[in-house]
């Protein structure tokens, strides 16, 4: 059992393979946080907690006048409350019936069980009975009788601890939850930095590292979705931590709506992190007997740098968050028509693309936006999920069958949460759009949002999509959402309940997704929100892959996918080879660079294959073969960031199989200079005493001009020539030389195989 309880001392210790987490209920009943870090024993470590008389940091009434040393304002706690003497950021803010905002939680009991708890209507890490244990600690506010159940899921092998909270109103009066965070973590020291992932549409998840110095530091979203702008994932680390060393903590929020992650360094240099639903648009009414479940946070700790944090999360997302038939199955190589045609296509053109792509080895054709209603641009039609047979020249079923007849699977784009003012759905149900009555709503991409907090709206969408799925041979759905939500209001909620809208919307979204994936388990769902606007661990519970960004430029993608890799595995990142000049940046990159970057994701194409030269078509065939050959390594291997995109010349990453038998090192020269220093990286995850051979891959190498062939051979570092074998120790300690670039944006894939 990974959970140890000392009942006499009320000490709770959670062990994972390499980490330990400890808390203790003190004599007052406050649940103190004692320790989270490298694995240690389960002895009581509360000796570490300092008590001192601190001015303006008051004392709970119960401790008596003689104890000025006990203050909630400085004690490390498991779940802090607003209004009763802790003036730092807090996890829980309860408004009582009399209008006061106060709660003081006291320990009442605990329960330990095998397996991992789940959360009603919300995504959560899941595990087999023998893979996880659950600890539930009950706290209560003695005055209001509000109960707070702190849930801890311990996945020993993964080094993961999850947290969520259930709040039950056991009192006689209604309360309003003004804030109900999913976790609070207090460190009794400062000196940390945090790494957060900021961005914008077409440039998501840039890495920012900053000091957690005095004050409140926060990232979050009030956009209805988790957003392009801040990802609900952060790492707190020691100042000297890097990819391979230093103490680091990772926090990933399994939630696709508005969130807030705050960190505060307090008056005595302690650090507190609070994470949960954003309180700005949140006020949840809880009547006597009712309960509220917060979404879940998954935490991991590493004493050995950032790389371990990422790999722990990758493994858990792949194994314990993604679900369904597609979880372990090889995902099909797809072609999406968006950048090939945008809205401007006929059924015949689509079949032509599908046929050509099929001949090259592509397995799935995805019909993107524009196949339904009156939808020839983004001004109209959203909500009218009826095929535009005039445009397609046939029924959707016939089109799908034609495509299936070309040897392809068929996939379809939807934006179920969108509604255009110019749509039949809006004309019929104007009250289904999210607008504030009497105000003109803000438009975004000329569209409004469908009120997913309403059950009738959820049922309507389930019904419409079900009808299409039942009559068309569909095996893939791209679920898009192309705006942020403002003017938040639901005609189905009364004035006192409008503060529930944003969270109810997300619950509605999850209900629709859960219903559809259960009904149609054979369909692979890919999430999308204008690219990566809702790229979060919550969404991955329903859609095992998410379109990473609307920016398909290979060089920009290096930055986006690098940032994304800190919290999410390659198997979840939608990535395609697109045409050049790139549609977002105008940049021209070689085919090899585009395929190399897309192979650090789910891999597919988003261009008009009918326009490719014969030589390019040959390359596509080879790329697909190579992707299939490396599939297990790419999708399930251990991921290492070897050189970041901020390096002067080259971005390099590696996937190594769990046993260290082989690895794939991918390198893209984002800058080609003259007479540059060699690029050398230390390969990871190999066996020190084993010999490896290196095989160099680059698209078009076979058809390269003789002069280039000669140049390549001349400048190839030793080790690539004559299949020389090198030890794992050498590759790991001494390093691997990345061959020089032969052209701008040169990409190399180096397959390292045990001999
Ligand atoms: C945004 C998506 O990210 C694109 O890939 C494409 O599907 C468009 N929406 C279609 O409107």
Outline the structure in words:
The chain is of the alpha+beta class and about 750 residues long. Among the domains are: about 5-320, alpha-galactosidase from lactobacil brevis (Beta-galactosidase, Chain A, domain 5), CATH 2.70.98.60; about 640-755, Golgi alpha-mannosidase II (Immunoglobulin-like, Sandwich), CATH 2.60.40.1180. The strands form seven sheets. Strands 6, 7, 8, 9, 11, 12, 14, 15, 19 and 20 form a ten-stranded antiparallel beta sheet that branches. It has a nine-stranded parallel beta sheet with strand order 29-28-27-26-23-22-21-31-30. It is globular, with a radius of gyration of 27 Å. The mean pLDDT is about 95.
Please write out the topology.
Layout lengths: L2 E4 L4 E5 L3 E7 L5 E8 L53 E4 L10 E9 L18 E9 L4 E10 L4 E10 L5 E13 L4 E9 L2 E9 L3 E6 L12 E6 L9 E7 L4 E7 L5 E7 L6 E3 L4 E3 L2 E7 L3 H16 L12 E3 L1 H4 L5 H14 L3 E4 L21 H4 L3 H10 L3 E6 L3 E2 L4 H5 L19 E2 L5 H17 L4 E4 L21 H19 L4 E4 L17 E3 L6 H12 L7 E2 L1 E3 L12 H8 L5 E3 L7 H16 L1 H6 L1 E6 L6 E7 L5 E8 L9 E3 L9 E7 L8 H10 L9 E3 H7 L1 E3 L8 E8 L1
Parallel strand pairs: 21-22, 21-31, 22-23, 23-26, 26-27, 27-28, 28-29, 30-31
Antiparallel strand pairs: 1-2, 2-3, 3-4, 5-10, 6-7, 7-8, 8-9, 9-19, 9-20, 10-17, 10-18, 11-12, 11-14, 13-16, 14-15, 15-20, 16-17, 24-25, 32-33, 33-34, 34-39, 35-38, 36-37, 36-39
Helix pairs in contact: 7-8, 9-10
The structure holds (2R,3S,4R,5S)-2-(hydroxymethyl)piperidine-3,4,5-triol.
């Amino acid at each position: 059992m990974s959970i140890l309880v000392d009942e006499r001392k009320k000490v709770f210790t959670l062990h994972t393979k390499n980490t330990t987490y400890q808390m203790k209920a003190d004599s007052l009943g406050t649940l103190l946080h004692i320790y989270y870090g490298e694995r240690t024993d389960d002895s009581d470590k509360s000796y570490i907690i300092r008590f001192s008389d601190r001015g303006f940091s008051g004392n709970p009434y119960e401790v008596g006048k003689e104890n000025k040393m006990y203050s909630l304002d400085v004690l490390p706690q498991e779940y802090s409350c607003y209004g009763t003497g802790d003036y730092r950021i807090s996890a829980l803010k309860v408004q009582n019936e009399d209008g006061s905002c106060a709660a003081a939680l006291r320990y009442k009991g605990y329960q330990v069980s095998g397996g991992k708890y789940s959360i009603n209507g919300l995504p959560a890490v899941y595990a087999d009975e023998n893979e996880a244990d659950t600890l539930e600690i009950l706290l209560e506010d003695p005055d209001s009788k509000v109960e707070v159940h702190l849930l801890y899921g311990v996945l020993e092998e993964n080094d993961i601890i999850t947290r969520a909270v259930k709040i039950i109103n056991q009192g006689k009066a209604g309360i309003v939850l003004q804030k109900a965070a999913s976790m609070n973590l207090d460190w009794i020291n400062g000196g940390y930095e945090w790494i957060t992932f900021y961005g914008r549409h077409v440039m998501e998840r840039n890495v920012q590292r900053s000091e957690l110095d005095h004050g409140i530091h926060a990232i979050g979203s009030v956009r209805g979705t988790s957003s392009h702008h801040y990802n609900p994932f952060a790492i707190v680390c020691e100042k000297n931590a890097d990819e391979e060393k230093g103490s680091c903590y990772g926090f990933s929020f399994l939630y696709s709506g508005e969130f807030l992650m705050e960190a505060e360094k307090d008056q005595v240099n302690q650090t507190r992190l609070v994470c949960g639903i954003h309180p700005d648009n949140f006020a949840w009414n809880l009547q006597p007997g009712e309960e509220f479940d917060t979404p879940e946070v998954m935490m991991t700790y590493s004493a050995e740098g950032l790389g371990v944090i990422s790999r722990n999360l990758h493994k858990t997302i792949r194994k314990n968050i993604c679900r369904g038939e597609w979880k372990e199955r090889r995902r099909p190589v797809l072609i999406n028509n968006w950048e090939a045609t945008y809205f401007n296509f006929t059924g015949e053109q689509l079949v032509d693309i599908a046929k050509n792509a099929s001949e090259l080895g592509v397995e799935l054709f995805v019909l993107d936006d524009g196949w339904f209603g009156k939808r020839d641009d983004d001004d109209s039609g959203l909500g009218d999920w009826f095929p535009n047979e005039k445009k397609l020249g046939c029924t959707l079923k016939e089109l799908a069958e034609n495509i299936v007849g070309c040897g392809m699977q068929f996939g379809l784009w939807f934006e179920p949460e969108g509604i255009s003012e110019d749509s039949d759905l809006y004309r019929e149900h104007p009250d289904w759009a999210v607008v504030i009555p009497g105000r003109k709503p803000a438009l975004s991409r000329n569209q409004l949002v469908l009120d997913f907090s309403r059950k009738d709206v959820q049922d309507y969408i389930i019904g419409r999509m079900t009808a299409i799925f039942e009559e068309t041979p569909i095996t893939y759905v791209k679920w898009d959402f192309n705006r942020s939500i403002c003017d938040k209001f639901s005609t189905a909620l009364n004035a006192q309940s409008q503060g529930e809208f944003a969270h109810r919307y997300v619950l509605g979204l999850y209900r629709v997704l859960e219903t559809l994936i259960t009904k149609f388990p054979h369909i692979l769902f890919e999430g999308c929100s204008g690219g990566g606007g809702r790229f979060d661990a919550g969404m991955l519970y329903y859609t095992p892959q998410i379109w990473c960004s609307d920016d398909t430029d290979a060089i920009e993608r290096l930055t986006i996918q690098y940032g994304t890799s800190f919290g999410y595995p390659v198997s979840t990142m939608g990535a395609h080879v697109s045409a050049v000049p790139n549609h977002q940046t105008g940049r021209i990159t070689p085919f090899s660079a585009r395929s190399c970057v897309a192979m650090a994701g789910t891999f597919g194409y988003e261009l008009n294959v009918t326009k490719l030269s014969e030589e390019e078509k040959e390359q596509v065939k080879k790329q697909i073969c190579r992707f299939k050959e490396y599939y297990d390594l790419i999708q399930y291997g251990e991921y290492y960031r070897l050189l970041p995109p901020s390096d002067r010349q080259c971005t390099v990453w590696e996937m190594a199989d769990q046993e260290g038998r082989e690895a794939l090192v991918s390198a893209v020269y984002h800058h080609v200079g003259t007479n540059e220093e060699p690029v050398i990286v230390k390969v990871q995850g190999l066996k020190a005493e084993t010999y490896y051979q290196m095989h160099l891959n680059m698209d078009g190498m076979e058809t390269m001009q003789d002069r280039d062939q000669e140049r390549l051979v001349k400048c190839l570092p030793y080790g690539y020539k004559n299949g020389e074998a090198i030890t794992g120790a050498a590759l790991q300690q001494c390093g691997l030389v990345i061959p020089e670039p032969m052209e701008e944006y040169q990409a190399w894939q180096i397959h390292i195989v045990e001999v």
